[in-house]
Amino acid sequence: PYVIAEPCIDVMDKSCVEECPVDCIYEGERKLYINPKECIDCGACEPVCPVEAISQDRRVAPEHVDFVEDNRRFFIEVLPGRDAPISAPGGSHKTGRIGVDTPMVADR
Ligand code: F3S
Ligand code: F3S
Fold this sequence. Notes:
This protein is an alpha+beta fold. Helices cover 24% and strands 11% of the residues. It has helices spanning 15-19, 66-78, 92-95, 103-106, and strands at residues 2-4, 25-27, 32-34, 54-56.
């Protein structure tokens, strides 16, 4: 899957959301997250991000490697209990702004 790294924090341009054909980019409080179980690796989101926050998990810059696990963590540890879809294909438009981040992002 693709992942969103640190440059998205407090920028949240959201051009990526419009490009994603499976609606798998979810909005937290200060950053967006790609659901690794829904992303089909199409890559459409990567070139549209103005701050180059998005890359494939195998090509993440060394300084952003923690964000691979952190994107996953958002769906495993943060979303459950918040009445939001976790693995149903698509759904970020329905979920809307979730308004919470992973602890790692909240601390930046
Ligand atoms: Fe963030 Fe870039 Fe998307 S800033 S919201 S990853 S277009
Ligand atoms: Fe969507 Fe980007 Fe994956 S456009 S399917 S999140 S590669």
